Amino acid sequence: CAKETCLITIMVDSQYYLPNDIGISALDCAEAFRLLSPKEKLYAHYLSRAAWYGGLVVLLQTSPESPTIYVLLQRIFRKQPPAELEAVATAAGLTSEEYQAFLVYAAGLYANMGNYKSFGDTKFIPNLPKEKFKALVWESQAYKERPDEIEVLWNSCSNLLYSLEDKQKQLGLGDKGITTYFSGNCCLEDAELAQKFLDSKNLSAYNTRLFKKECDGKRCYEVRLASAVKKEGEAESRCGTFEFENASFTVCRGDYALLMEKVSHNLEKAKAYASDENQTRMLEEYVRSFTYGSVDAHKEGSRYWIKDKGPIVESYIGFIESYRDPFGSRGEFEGFVAVVNKAMSARFAQLVSSAEVLLPELPWPSAFEKDRFLKPDFTSLDVLTFAGSGIPAGINIPNYDDIRQTEGFKNVSLGNVLAVAYATQKEKLTFLDEKDKDLYIKWKGPSFEVQDDKGNFNFNQAEVRNPETGELISSWYKGSETWDSKFSTIASSYEECRAECVGLYLCLNKQVLGIFGHEGEEAEEVVYVNWLNMVRAGLLGLEFYTPESKSWRQAHMQARFVILRVLLEAGEGLVSLSETTGADGRPDALITLDRSKVHTVGKNAIQKFLCRLQVHKSTADVEGGRALYQGYSAVTSDGSHDFLRLRETVLLRKEARKMFVQANTCVKGEAVELEEYESSAAGLIQSFTERFTDDAEEVEAHLLEMASKDSTCWC
Question: Which residues are annotated as a binding site for Zn(2+)?
């Protein structure tokens, strides 16, 4: 028993370290960049600069200590790059393994833009003793030149740098974790009240943060809008103090002011190299949005972005995804710049052209679809820049429901991310039968291309009947309510689950497979691996569940676990999940899929579940949707599978998520040059220290000022 307890302790603690052998890959975009014209290169350069400055906002959105840790590391590495710092580490008494752990931690902080994993929201701490970390800092050239300054930085972040108190182990609201979207005294009730207030003022929460204090026994809230401008008085301002349900709300601007100013400045520069009117108007609206804190302006910019079909240089920027807001309404900043991959984009274009034939195949009545299908722009891109907390393999944007319903959206597949993110070593492939592993490695990439398909539909509430009950619908979206504001905490994961189900369902269609060049036996292999990948992902998803708070930390993985539960529930031997003992004598698991039943039992299960998801979403049935989704999301030891014990096995055998090294661009004379870096922790670190060479001190001072100003808000 003592040995088993020790093993579990090591296993759980390993969640909070990044391993020294973590995969680090460079995103190759050299050829795509080389083929751009000089004008396109300048356009891409200034968009990239805007994205990188905006990406620093994520430090302030992640944790109280993230900005200070970032500044400390930047100051150390600016004086001594990793190769030079190695001798210093040796002199300070670090082993080579400890120095590598230091580099991996630094690379992880840069890659995640904070000290919490972007995928899973778990804290990570340095995998070397605190005294060794401090010894290295004290031996560094940065400390020798400015000892007082470096000591202040260390003292202000070192405790939280290493702290693994229960609340600090993960992001969350109130006593469930750490968040800087809300002050530390906010709870779910405050988030709900603030959402009601924002809805009453027709204000979006996407670019806001909420701070609460008591004023003479009354609840007083400050809603901060991200903007370069701090002062009030502009015509489009919605700022001011308002009374609402026995509370006071003050809406003000100026959050992340300097960073928003630098974003806007570079977007203005990019405008000079725009290729057409749509790009020019798009950038004008983005600048207005980031200058004044206007989500309406960002929506307007997004409308022009949608109209900008098939540009050579594609981009999007702003407060986009709400996964990391514990309430699910506030967007994390991200910005990407990418170059079109013409060959793969042609396949996606063919898929979109077939959509009007394929959509009737989906398992709900036509009344649940739009009268007119708005064909999205579906493009494969090679990423030049992706600033934020992490890099996805694909995106479906914008997230504004009113725009998606009436004007459309774009599907973006990030080809050079897929090329490295889905490269898998056989010996690291867990929980699959040996006969499935080679198939899995061969077809995982192609199956993702087929799977990446999202539906988005509308309905007429006066005519639509619930396909399950036959009754007229009794709920719908009212006033300024949106999908995110209505379904809040489950919205992101629920929508990811719906999208994944659409992909699973449509990949069974021969026409879809044919578009991607898969026919006959090969097509069946792609279908099999696509479904196998999903059930395995559902099992792996258990890593991102926290039993103590009974909460999920990652929307996509929760969605995949839900789908695993649905397919296990289908029975008839479709999916088999068993606990085993590995060759190393430690707990293991085996998941298998009966390929002969995918088109029958599997299709039927997904069809029914997808229809239920769609009905609850379309009719704003929050109560029914929550009951359905949270029921399948439950992780228990009851029933035919002990998912809590399986979670321990998943943690024991988990592989760390890869990190990406990205290139920099710089203007030399009239040309733009691409600076690339090696695929290592040192390369990732170097890319960041060379990213802000012109104004590093100014930007870092702003980050520290903001972190210091709000330091009392998190207690």
Answer: 496
